[in-house]
């Protein structure tokens, strides 16, 4: 005995809907191409010399020699600069989290007026323009004896990141159900244990968002690193070292592109590791909204 | 419980180690000079891919080894002046700065950031070692020699004689010949004069063309004030520039190109003529250099000049002594004397193609165009004109470049160009 099941009837998409789907698809792919073509240009140029870059900008390179990369690294001491950037960025990120997480925890649990005021004070940090803070920051560095050291930047960067970090994390921590905290407290957990064992695991997407956004900001920081850390190749960060590959005349763009690509690798690595958590955080926000 | 403690201890150790160790390391003074008076701190623009940067690194290392000297080397590119100035404010500036005399650095001696080197020229035996023209150019209005002039540049014109011969011409020396060359080159599919219309190379050529109709004194006045409309010579120069542009002398879309695209157009054989500084000539590959003749910018019939023009400048990197350095002359003097020694000067000329201000017989063997540029200057077949950089106010520099970039665009008349340039100066 055979049974026949009727094939599910495919819902007909209205003609106008199909047109919209195709149009949005074309636009999406067009936009993706707009992003990918410069990226493609950037990568292939890393393997070319100036003549190839200028005369055949989109053509494939004739060789995949890594000479441009070697030249960039040796000319601008990029290896040391990358280590310095990792050091500065890593330390500043750790310090940011050490300060922002407890602050956000306290603000999220605060019910009084003082908490709201302090939260707004943190948010006011967004209003300080980078350039306006440069001169007082320089004076502070000189007065503390930390001018031309990485130490000052490691302390400075978290200060600049606190508004964003606190605002994001506070919102995440407010979403944690109070019942969880009460249950933990009844089991004898101290506030710090509640933070570590209840709040933090739930807020991991928020922490990842803060880490990712601040990583990009710290890694790409140029002005303060240039002025405060200064010109010592042993201490300068990648953003200060890289421009030395740009010349007044006769810049070797292949070498410059290779150096830039080399310095972007850690960024891609961190973004790949954290992007899923960040997307989760954004989606969580969307659902809540 | 013990596992919790263990995790906590591990976390604490990790964080403490991760944060505190580099911080403590970073607390150590950046400059060895600050930790001892026996270290010489040198802040140089010989950095990255700059011509001579590798020679400089090698020379410093050799100096360390030969004399057991402690030298801390700091480096920046075009951002050196601002970094040096903030260091001065903090009292942590390097003892010697090796940097161009242009823009911000012009004010250093007056502001006391660096000390005049007049007394040391004789005492250290460098007065006879440096060309007189260089010392003169590096001297300010008060007679203070700002620094020891080290590198320099010429700004001749490179002509690809193979391409010119291909279209049946020789190297043009007059405007009429240049017009004919432009026509024939375009007909044969070549670009005539490659120029970076959007950047300083375009600005330099524009000012050079103006100088065909200006005496050096008039040129100084015009470049310092920017008042082209008040100078009949400058106005005639602008008219002439427009005629050249309209005759197709410059490559198409020149207003969109920069110094790098200019160099590439020439080295790729797409253009037959290029106005270029000598350090860029050092970058022309051998095969193209072999078919290049160095000369000057063709002279118009009604010019004040008799011969094609070449921008001549003794400006390049100089060795500036800071206030800190003036307290360590026992360390500064031998290092500067070493940099001016014949073997070191020769090394820069032979291995990096640099033009140097030191008096020397050494010639650029591996950089034949640099040597040709020197020979042309000495031959008397070209007329030198001044480099406007030392006269243009620092704050007018970028607006002026933007104005001359527009001048290379089609349809911009002489009056409009004069207005653009004067506006660039007015907005200072």
Keywords:
heterodimer, A: 289 residues, mainly alpha, 13 helices, 0% strand, flat, B: 428 residues, alpha/beta, 4-stranded mixed beta sheet, globular
Coarse morphology of chain B: globular
Cα distance, first to last residue of chain A? 53 Å
Structural class of chain A: mainly alpha
Mean of residue pLDDT of chain B? 90
| Largest sheet features of chain A | none
User: Helix tally of chain B?
Assistant: 21
Rg of chain B, rounded, reads 25 Å
Most extensive chain-chain interface:
A-B, 46 and 51 residues
Largest sheet of chain B: 6 strands, mixed
Low-confidence stretches of chain B: 1-5, 26-34
Describe what is shown at a glance:
With 289 residues, chain A is an all-alpha fold.
List the helices and strands and how they pair.
The complex is a heterodimer of chains A (289) and B (428).
Chain A: H1 15-45, H2 50-55, H3 67-76, H4 78-109, H5 113-124, H6 130-144, H7 150-174, H8 178-186, H9 191-202, H10 204-219, H11 223-229, H12 238-241, H13 253-288
Helix pairs in contact in A: 3-13, 4-7, 4-10, 5-7, 7-10, 8-9, 10-13
Chain B: H1 2-27, H2 32-35, E1 39-44, H3 53-67, E2 70-75, H4 80-89, E3 96-100, H5 108-111, E4 114-115, H6 118-123, H7 132-137, E5 148-149, E6 151-155, E7 157-160, H8 161-166, H9 175-187, E8 191-194, H10 200-210, H11 216-225, H12 232-246, H13 259-267, E9 271-275, H14 278-281, H15 286-290, E10 292-295, E11 309-313, E12 317-322, H16 323-326, H17 329-339, H18 342-352, E13 355-356, H19 368-379, E14 383-386, H20 397-407, H21 414-426
Parallel strand pairs in B: 1-2, 1-3, 8-9, 11-14
Antiparallel strand pairs in B: 3-12, 4-12, 5-12, 6-11, 6-13, 7-9, 7-10
Protein described:
- The complex is a heterodimer of chains A (289) and B (428).
- Chain A is mostly helical.
- Chain A is 74% helix and 0% strand.
- In chain A, helix 4 runs parallel beside helix 7, helix 4 packs antiparallel against helix 10 and helix 5 crosses helix 7.
- The model of chain A has no long low-confidence stretch (mean pLDDT 87).
- Chain B has 21 helices and 14 strands.
- Chains A and B meet through helix 2, helix 3, helix 4, helix 6 and helix 7 of A and helix 1, strand 2, helix 4 and helix 13 of B.
